[in-house]
Amino acid sequence: MAWIVLVVSGLLETVWAIALDRSAGFTKPLPTGIFAVAIVLSMLGLGYALRTIPVGTGYAVWVGIGAVGTAVVGMVALGENASLPRILCLLLVVGGVVGLKYAH
């Protein structure tokens, strides 16, 4: 259960990062509200998962999911650069996250 919560919390990290960008410095109410809810839920989930997953593994997986998710949303939906080197680097992060899961 902790791993499922950790993955969902990592996905929520992507939500709050995108909402933070879209909030225009907290001047737009809807993205600001989404940011606030998503970051609280993400942290609560991370805290729950860290009760049974070691902090180094849990935090690295959480950050990895959030970073890759945010970069993918940026490339797919927001028109950010989707160069081959960037995609290869993201695949390395995914490989590291998967490796940490199985090394646990």
From TrEMBL:
* Entry keywords, A to Z: Cell membrane, Membrane, Transmembrane, Transmembrane helix, Transport
UniProt entry tagged with the keyword Cell membrane: yes
**Top-level taxon:** Bacteria
Do you know which SUPFAM superfamilies this protein is assigned to? Multidrug resistance efflux transporter EmrE
Q: Name one GO cellular component term.
A: plasma membrane
Membrane topology qualifier: Multi-pass membrane protein
Parts of the chain that traverse the membrane: 33-50, 59-78, 84-103
This chain belongs to the protein called: Quaternary ammonium compound-resistance protein SugE
List the source organism. Answer: Actinoplanes cyaneus
